[in-house]
Fold this sequence. Notes:
This protein is α+β, with helices and mostly antiparallel strands. It has 2 domains: 6-79, no CATH class; 111-281, Rossmann fold (3-Layer(aba) Sandwich). It is 30% helix and 28% strand. The chain contains 10 helices and 18 strands. The strands form 4 sheets. The protein has a 7-stranded mixed beta sheet. A 4-stranded antiparallel beta sheet has the order 2-3-4-5. Helix 1 packs across helix 2 (56-64) and helix 9 packs across helix 10 (248-264).
Amino acid sequence: xxxxxxxSHYQASPILEARRKGQSTVTTxxxxxxxxxxxxxxxSGLLLPDGQExxxxxxxxxxxxxxxxxxxxxxAIQPIIVHxxxxxxVRTLYPTAAAPTTLVAGFLMHRIKxxxxxxxxxxxxxxxxxxxxxxxxxxxxxxxxxxxxARTATHVTTIELxxxxxxxALLNPWSQPLFDNPKITQIIGDATEEIAKFADGxxxxxxxxxxxxxxxxxxxxAAFYAQLYRVLGQGGRLFHYIGDLSSSYGSRTVxxxxxxLLDAGFSRVVKKDEAFGLVATKLKVEG
Length: 287
């Protein structure tokens, strides 16, 4: 089903500037930067290609809220926000100059300082390149990891605890390949439970990008790391996102994570500062 027009302050600001200059048309994006379209400016508002007119007061509201993206339906705006009964978290689609991220319980799910969410994702994936064979993504979120991994992987299995995350992704233009790509299998469930259902050595690569420890502590546990080790094939590699390794949180967290990964059986754990995480390798047994 086609998505409704979606705007953030990144689109609203130049539209309003064009109005102040007396322009009758302006080129903008109605899908958060994925494509461009020409729209008309009238005395009462913004005339969209589908015939909707968005009043100037509504557009000013979009421009005044830098933390949200808005759908446009029936000439009215609606912020893209989901409250999940599963986790009790509030998720908001959070705009950037490129692909958006999500704000979950007050935490941004991608790095956005001097980097955009897709660049952030690609840095994580690059740490365990080449991405081949079967890949496990332990936390779907907006699906960027699964989408990028599926470019070269044979198949990607991605797990998401919170159905609210997929509600947000369904409205995010940048997440649509998550639902269209036959190489991606989505599982809704608790990764700490779902991982027990996979066969030993099933995956060539694992991308483990959990929320911060305060939101998902069980995803940093020795028991979960043992399962990650079990389902990773010989010679396989795991990327584990931590956060800025030089920060107080990162340096404090990484010590325990490295210890538990080694205890789980990984033969080597290496810091990847550029990706804010660690790479752990499962030794390939000869013979």
